[in-house]
Amino acid sequence: MTMDPSRVRISGPLAEHALGFGEVLRKCGYPCERAARHVQLLAQLSRWMERQGLGERELSEERVAEFLAARRAEGYYDKPTLSWVLTVLGLVPGLDVARAEPAPLKPVESAVVEYAHYLSRERGLATKTVRGYTQVASLFLSPRVSIDGDLDLSQVNAKAVITFVIDESRRRSVGAAQVLVTALRSLLRFLFLEGRIAQPLAQAVPAARPRRASCPEDSTTRWWQRCSATATPRRSSAGVISPFSRCSHGSGFVPARSQGLPSTTSTGTTASSW
Q1: Whole-model pTM?
Q2: N or C end of the chain: which has fewer CB within 10 A?
Q3: Are 120 and 200 found together in one domain?
């Protein structure tokens, strides 16, 4: 293989761009071997277009994708991605590649994009944090698409929120579950502010707890019913007992009353009236 970009032989509709391309690569500091490879890729594309009867004006993102597919079929060892090739072709002086029009966003994707803008512009969160929060948003919103393909949040209520947290926490470490809970609360606040849900459900998200053995299949319903009845913490002489406590037999998100905790009175410790 030649190490000099200027000596790469090229024919076809893109041949006139080879010399200028090599010069640009040299000015950008590309090593000779790497620059020669880039010019060779341009030469391969130009020959492929010539065989297809295409002119320079017909070069588009779709054509480049077809060229790469044909290249892979011919057994080339290196398999560059479409985005990388488009970036390289962007360095070719005077060469225009018609970009494909982006496909319209699906309802869930559109909602997640709006949420990401809210996090970055209004909340000022870091890019890494925004990425993590939007992943949780996609996970929560994806199952809520109607038959018509629209985003349907009419069934998003406290029970749906709690069920989601329980199901997802079973597959996560305690730290990951805590991130999930924080991101979900943020999403629910955004959805309420935007008028997409009727009630402020951020407070319905339970706190993350250490995982225990798996719960019975109907534990989610029983847990939600218990939580609904114990939304206000109980206080005894021993202190405040939270309605959300560790589960000795479940996922880690079970109300304290399900544990039969003792209460302390002036006459001593007795069985809880819960």
Answers
A1: 0.50
A2: N
A3: yes
Cβ proximity of 165 and 253 under 8 Å? yes
Per the domain annotation, does 99 fall within a domain? no
Same domain, yes or no: 71 and 131: no
Residues contacting residue 267 through CB under 8 Å, at least 6 positions apart: none
Q: How many domains does the chain have?
A: 3
Summarised one tens digit per residue, pLDDT across range 37-58 is 999 999 999 999 999 999 999 9
101-159 residue pLDDT tens: 777 889 999 999 999 999 999 999 999 999 999 999 999 999 999 988 899 999 999 99
Phi, psi of 262 (to 5 degrees): -75, 150
| Per-residue pLDDT at 16 | 93
For residue 220, report the phi and psi dihedrals to the nearest 5 degrees: -60, -45
Torsion of CA 115, 117, 123, 126, to 10 degrees: 100
Considering the domain architecture, whether residues 197 and 224 belong to the same structural domain is answered as no
Q: What are phi and psi of 244, to 5 degrees?
A: -105, 110
Question: Distance (Å, rounded) from C-alpha 262 to C-alpha 269?
Answer: 7
Quote the radius of gyration of the chain (alpha carbons, Å): 30
